[in-house]
Amino acid sequence: MFTGIITDIGEIVSLAPKAQGQLHRLRIACRYDRATIADGASIACNGVCLTVVASGVDGGKTWFDVDAGAETLRLTTASDWKQGERLNLERALKIGDELGGHIVAGHVDGIAAIVARDDLPDMAKFDLRAPRDLAKFIAAKGSVTLDGVSLTVNTAVDDTFSVTIIPHTLKGTTLGSWRAGSEINLEIDLMARYAARLTEMK
């Protein structure tokens, strides 16, 4: 589990397809202490929960390897990741950690698309379009996870919704690079999904 509060920005230093293109092995450089990364640990990369299979230090910088399987490549933007790409990183939540965002599973539900960007003084407002089957779970003032970042929804109409990004988030994540047409990993709020399921069962 995660909170959607980004703790580092990593960079893909290598990416190798394996198993006839159905599995990608990625090496990601980061600023985390190598001693704190264990094999089998979960790290959310642009909102995708991936399992560490190896780690080390090269040139004074920590790196870790993860595998992106066929389902991850199908449902997320990971299929388009390239060497040099920067990724929002978050370590798995530990008992006693501050829950600063909202409960995030790291299980991306689909891909949203940036429809428009409006640069405001020190902030940026984005309009996004969600897959229609996921749009019903997104509500104004509710929570949503975009590329691993916990955000509050400003408006939600049909299959479009908007978010406003504050200066701290623009500086500490990759969201400042979003442009119209960008594709974004979307995880809906778990509470919204459970509420909808309960309604269906009545």
Describe the structure.
This protein has 202 residues and is mainly beta. The chain folds into two domains: 8-91, Elongation Factor Tu (Ef-tu), domain 3 (Beta Barrel); 110-201, Elongation Factor Tu (Ef-tu), domain 3. Helices cover 14% and strands 44% of the residues. It has four helices and 13 strands. The protein has helices spanning 70-75, 132-135, 167-172, 190-201, and strands at 8-18, 23-30, 42-45, 48-58, 61-68, 86-91, 110-120, 123-129, 143-146, 149-152, 155-157, 160-165, 183-188. The strands form two sheets. It has a seven-stranded antiparallel beta sheet. A six-stranded antiparallel beta barrel has the order 1-2-5-4-3-6. A hairpin with a 4-residue loop joins strand 1 and strand 2. The radius of gyration is 17 Å and the shape is globular. The two termini are 29 Å apart.
